[in-house]
Recover the amino acids of this structure.
């Protein structure tokens, strides 16, 4: 059960300055970049500012270690916020350095730098604020600033149409947050986040107004985290420059999970909100994981991966595994930034793999030979990890996540066990190595759970039907993926393939509905990069979105 939150002592002025340094540097550089004398000076200023952002976030870590958790009416310094601030600052530094070479020679580099740093500054405010109004405003401003980056190539119909669709969903999420603010004021007479959580923790029953508020926050997170059926914009946003795709997938789309972490103590007591998060997150994770395997484009496959990962993270929030959600958020951000920025090297990696020996055809016996060591390694790791001094005994929900990790290891262990050989030729040494590999991954997973539990408390035990439902969903996903790999030419798989390749055509229906309510703007060509696209009329946006991605 999550512990009651106590309101900390006031945040000293010098700590307020420290936690605001990254955002202030980003805003200052965004303004100064417009007035620089040369493009080289603009990039030099941006790289210096982001490096100082990382340094400022490092000072915030030191300040937290010195004084512990502190908060004022508007700002706070705590482990989760400081970890996110350091993560955002580091990703900003990497993306700015990558962008300089990526956009070399582009005539709109100054505008790009200004918009990018404005977006990063707003994200920095989201992670350090302690007031609901500032959280709402900064989160909305992040979306608005990002809109200018998503429409960087403003003469591309797909780019403009997708950005417009995201704009509509983001404004819907903002309205939900406004409704939540009203509900908190009416019910608790405060908008200070730590006091909201503390007040709710001290009450025996959750007030109806708070239930409404936390449900609205969850809906806002679902809308901004690209969950089904509102996922299409994230898949189709690949018209934006690659660094923006990396920023979006590595830092901005994760904010929904971070906002839920801020209200963990309230979400834990709202069973209806937890149920919605688990159901929507699980369905999104399962469907997106299947669709991802049908895609050839690297960036589109990564986008479906992000959609699935966000669903998995929101599912963890609904299960009360807040420490695992935080771990997932940070690990996914680092991985996805690397994956997008390194997408150009995939062609070379593919050419190298073509020179390697071919794997033997997959058989059910091969899968079974890999499943056994994966499960054995996970069980051994879970029981041993429970004896570590900083790890609590695994809960049923955590065991389910451990089982998901075990089945995720099966494809890797299958190749290591069989390779180019027949299953019968596998020796005992290879099987022991497979068990050791499964054990190592699972042990690291359970150990990280214990370490992140020091940053955020474990939530309340979820209802049994949610845990069983999640287990059933991922067993079904595993079974379907195995059938597709072992029997790819069967009639039922061939019939299902077009549906999953099209994402069950959910987004096409949503796009037509959304564009009837609020049509996208007409394009006014400002560039001549792709003249054939600039001639596409506004009325064909939905068709372009449906067929282009």
């Amino acid at each position: 059960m999550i512990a009651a939150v106590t309101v900390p002592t006031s945040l000293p002025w010098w700590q307020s300055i420290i936690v605001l340094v990254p955002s202030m540097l980003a805003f200052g550089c965004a303004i100064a970049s417009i007035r620089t004398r040369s493009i080289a000076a603009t990039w030099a200023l941006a790289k210096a500012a982001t490096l100082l952002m990382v340094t400022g976030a490092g000072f915030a870590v030191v300040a937290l270690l010195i004084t512990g958790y502190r908060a004022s009416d508007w700002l706070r310094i705590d482990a989760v916020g400081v970890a996110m601030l350091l993560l955002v600052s580091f990703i900003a530094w990497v993306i700015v350095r990558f962008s300089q070479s990526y956009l070399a020679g582009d005539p709109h580099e100054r505008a790009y730098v200004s918009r990018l740093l404005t977006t990063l500054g707003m994200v920095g405010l989201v992670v350090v604020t302690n007031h609901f109004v500032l959280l709402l405003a900064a989160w909305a401003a992040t979306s608005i600033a990002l809109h200018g980056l998503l429409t960087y190539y403003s003469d591309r119909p797909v780019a403009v149409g997708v950005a417009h669709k995201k704009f509509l969903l983001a404004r819907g999420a903002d309205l939900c947050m406004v409704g939540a603010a009203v509900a908190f004021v009416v019910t608790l007479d405060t908008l200070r986040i730590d006091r909201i959580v503390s007040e709710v923790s001290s009450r025996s029953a959750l007030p109806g107004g708070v239930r409404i508020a936390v449900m609205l926050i969850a809906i806002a997170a679902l809308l901004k985290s690209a969950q089904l059926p509102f996922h299409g914009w994230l898949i189709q946003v690949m018209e934006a420059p690659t660094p923006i795709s990396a920023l979006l997938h590595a830092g901005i789309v994760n904010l929904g999970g971070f906002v839920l972490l801020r209200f963990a103590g309230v979400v834990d007591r709202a069973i209806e909100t937890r149920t919605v998060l688990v159901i929507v997150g699980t369905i999104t994770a399962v469907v997106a994981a299947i669709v991802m395997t049908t895609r050839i484009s690297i960036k589109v496959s990564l986008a479906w991966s992000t959609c699935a990962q966000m669903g998995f993270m929101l599912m963890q929030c609904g299960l009360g595994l807040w420490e695992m959600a935080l771990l997932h958020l940070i690990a996914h951000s680092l991985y996805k930034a690397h994956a997008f920025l390194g997408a150009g090297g995939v062609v070379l990696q593919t050419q190298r793999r073509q020179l390697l020996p071919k794997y033997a055809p997959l058989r059910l016996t091969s899968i079974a030979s890999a499943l056994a060591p994966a499960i054995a390694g996970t069980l051994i790791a879970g029981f041993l990890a429970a004896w570590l001094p900083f790890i609590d005994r695994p809960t049923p929900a955590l065991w389910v996540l451990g089982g998901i990790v075990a089945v995720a290891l099966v494809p890797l262990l299958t190749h290591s066990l069989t390779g180019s050989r027949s299953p019968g030729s596998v020796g005992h040494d290879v099987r022991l190595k497979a068990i050791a590999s499964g054990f190592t991954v699972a042990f690291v997973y359970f150990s990280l759970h214990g370490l992140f539990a020091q940053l955020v408390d474990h939530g309340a035990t979820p209802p049994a039907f949610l845990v069983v439902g999640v287990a059933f969903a991922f067993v079904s996903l595993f079974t379907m993926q195995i059938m597709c790999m072992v029997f790819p030419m069967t009639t039922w798989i061939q019939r299902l393939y077009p549906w999953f390749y099209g994402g069950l055509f959910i987004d096409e229906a949503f796009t037509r509905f959304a564009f009837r309510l609020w049509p996208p703007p007409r394009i006014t060509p400002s560039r001549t990069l792709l003249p054939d696209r600039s001639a596409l009329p506004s009325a064909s946006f939905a068709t372009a979105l449906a067929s282009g991605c």
Q: What stands out?
A: The beta strands are 70-71, 76-77. The chain is about 70% helix and 0% strand. Confidence is low (pLDDT under 50) at residues 1-5, 420-427, 527-549. The longest helix spans residues 157-188.
